[in-house]
Amino acid sequence: MRALLVTVVMPAVVVSACSPRSPHLVWEGRGDAKVVSVEEAVIPLPEVAPGVRTGPWASTEDATFQLLDAEAAERPHVHDDHDLTVVVLRGAGVLVVEDREYALQVGDVVHVGRGRAHHFHPHGTVTGLAIYTPRLERSDYREP
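^ that's the sequence the OP posted. Answer follows.
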């Protein structure tokens, strides 16, 4: 029995302990606390363009938090009235800001100041948490 434990069970425990856990989103802001895995959080997101789903996750008086799930490239665009900070939660891709390219992957954080033309090209499906400051009260998206 001990041999079975060492040869079968122990390696499974080591592998499961080493495999990365899916990121979770934890909210301890205004309203009820919530914890949800990224996989669960993206399920209800509506498609806003072919291959792009996005929707609100939370907000404060000063910021709006949106989830983005994309498998298609964005068109170049500008946010005139908001700064944008994105945390990459799943996947990888290339962000283009003005004439600079940045290879992004899970865990990377990018900040794009208002008025800067940018667009993202995912490699497969990419999920990110977008933080708009100040809080979004209306659409702030235009093509340059």
